[in-house]
Amino acid sequence: MNFHSTLKGIYLAIGLVVAACTTAQAASFTTNFTAVDGAEGNIWLNSITQNQATIDRFLLVNNAKILLNTPITNKQSGDTSNPETAGTNNNTGGASTDKGDKASALMPTSGLNDPTGAEIAAYLGNLNLNNIIDTEEQGAISMNLFFNKTVRADKSGLDNLFFWERGRNSDLGVQAIDASGKLIGNFVKLNRADQTLADYSIDTLEINAAHIVGSWGLSLQQLGVTSLNGIRVTADSSYNGPDFKLVARQVPEPASMVGLGAVAGMMLISRRRQVSKHS
Description:
Layout: H1 3-20, E1 23-24, E2 30-35, E3 43-50, E4 53-55, E5 58-59, E6 61-69, E7 79-80, E8 88-89, E9 95-99, H2 117-124, E10 131-135, E11 141-152, E12 161-166, E13 172-177, E14 183-190, E15 196-202, E16 211-218, H3 220-223, E17 227-235, E18 244-249, H4 254-278
Parallel strand pairs: 1-14, 7-8
Antiparallel strand pairs: 2-3, 3-4, 5-18, 6-11, 9-10, 11-17, 12-16, 12-18, 13-14, 13-17, 15-16
């Protein structure tokens, strides 16, 4: 089987999954951030406010496996991925790494080269909201994104996954995966119409003006799981090229909760002993 036949099969598989899914009503939240140099600079995520609760402990993507990414084609002399420079802006391909014109990053953007998994992980694995994954409108993507720790459900009523999308005009497919990358739970399509305005804009190398940013919140309950090691994100041309960033909410692990309970119990026993001693 040649490459084009394989690619066609993967496209078909994504299409069937998309056709079978239903959209999820994503929850809203407030993004609290510090911006340096405006829309072109670093925009650091400080915390998230949801249901009057402040979330400031996050899990980040630390590994990415690219399953499908439409390759960049038709590269010509003078082509660039930055419309503000001389030459023609090449908008072929699928996902690439992108950042604000003045924003810092652990490594250069992938530009006119198809990105590696390490590059995808580097741009998602930090709290700079102006380090993103840019997807072209006609491209298709399928990627396994693993977090640095297990994402777990709790009884707080808060969402577990938080997404931002530049332009507020695209959709994104999401499904939970386990440590081996196996799909678990439900496929969820995050619909562009359900995005909430994130109250900041970004101007990245791939565009020549500031674009507004929208956001989605997603719970593990909506994904049909109680824990996950990562997520598979997907999109095809009907999704209009999602340009996204994401983090997960960190909750205390079961062992930590047991430890906290034990400490609280010891304090209660000690207090009772003191009361008995002085009574």
